[in-house]
């Protein structure tokens, strides 16, 4: 979900771009080969399309949440404490939304594109389906019904997704005591792995405690193989965005492609 009008958007975009360039330099200097030209251009094309549809669907998303908020059970007074609680509730909701996106074929049709890259780098984080905004707010309706304001929900979800940008990298190793507590690059590498041991693991957005509680946590123990089990799909952004839906309607859909 998305909130318009933030004066920090250009600065944030600049910082993210600097980090991507820094990762490219790190990869080149250390011969890590985590970037591939066609794949990176594909990711940038997908990102451009996603940014357009994000703006296009913002009104729809807030309208859905606003409708539910009219029937809220409680009237909370806005405060930093309420936002902190809302952030945790949003992260818990994200865990189940993310897990459902791997378990239910119609949702996997939206999510498949994010796992289709065979490289892991910061640009992979924006490999998102252009139409995911259609289904995303539905999972956050319970928050609005409880009494969390729509803009607060949107901000919490937006910060959650921003945090995950930093998880899409091979440049950061394990982070000691933080592993298994919060999402880390190591934990998220596992999530993107198509190794049998890594499939259906580490769904948390910011907190990894949900995976601990519900039995889906897996530490990084072997070299990660990225992508879906059926292998390479395409470098065409339109093919990638529609690939999951085509397979779904043809009856060919299976988990991890």
From TrEMBL:
Primary localization class, coarse: membrane
Domain Fatty acid hydroxylase: start-end pairs: 83-216
UniProt-listed Pfam families: FA_hydroxylase
The UniProt record lists the keyword Transmembrane: yes
Lipid metabolism as UniProt keyword: yes
GO biological process, one term: lipid biosynthetic process
Membrane-spanning residues: 6-26, 46-68, 80-97, 146-166
Coiled-coil residue spans: none
Membrane topology category: Multi-pass membrane protein
Cell location: Endomembrane system
Domain of life: Bacteria
InterPro entries xrefs: Fatty_acid_hydroxylase (IPR006694), Sterol_desaturase/TMEM195 (IPR051689)
Record keywords, A-Z: Lipid metabolism, Membrane, Oxidoreductase, Transmembrane, Transmembrane helix
Gene Ontology CC entries for this record: endomembrane system; membrane
GO molecular function, one term: iron ion binding
The name this protein goes by in its record: Sterol desaturase
Organism: Parapedobacter pyrenivorans
């Amino acid at each position: 979900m998305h909130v318009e009008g933030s004066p920090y958007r250009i600065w944030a975009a600049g910082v993210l771009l600097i980090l991507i360039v820094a990762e490219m330099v790190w990869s080149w200097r250390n011969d890590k080969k985590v970037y591939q030209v066609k794949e990176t251009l594909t990711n940038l094309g997908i990102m451009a399309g996603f940014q357009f549809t994000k703006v296009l669907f913002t009104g729809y998303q807030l309208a859905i949440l606003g409708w539910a908020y009219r029937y809220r059970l409680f009237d909370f007074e806005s405060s930093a404490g309420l936002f902190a609680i809302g952030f945790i509730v949003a992260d818990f909701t994200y865990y189940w939304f993310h897990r459902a996106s791997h378990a239910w074929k119609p949702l996997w049709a939206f999510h498949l594109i994010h796992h289709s890259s065979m490289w892991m780098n910061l640009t992979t984080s924006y490999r998102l389906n252009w139409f995911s905004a259609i289904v995303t707010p539905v999972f956050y309706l319970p928050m609005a019904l409880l009494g969390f304001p729509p803009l607060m929900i949107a901000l919490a979800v937006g910060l959650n997704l921003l945090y995950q940008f930093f998880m899409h990298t091979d440049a950061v190793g394990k982070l000691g005591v933080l592993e298994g507590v919060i999402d880390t690059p190591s934990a998220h590498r596992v999530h993107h792995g198509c190794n049998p041991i890594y499939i259906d693991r580490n769904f948390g957005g910011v907190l990894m405690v949900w995976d601990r509680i519900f039995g889906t946590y897996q530490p990084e123990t072997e070299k990660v193989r990225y992508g879906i089990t059926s292998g390479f799909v395409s470098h065409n952004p339109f093919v990638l965005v529609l690939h999951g839906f085509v397979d779904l309607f043809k009856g060919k859909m299976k988990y991890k492609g």
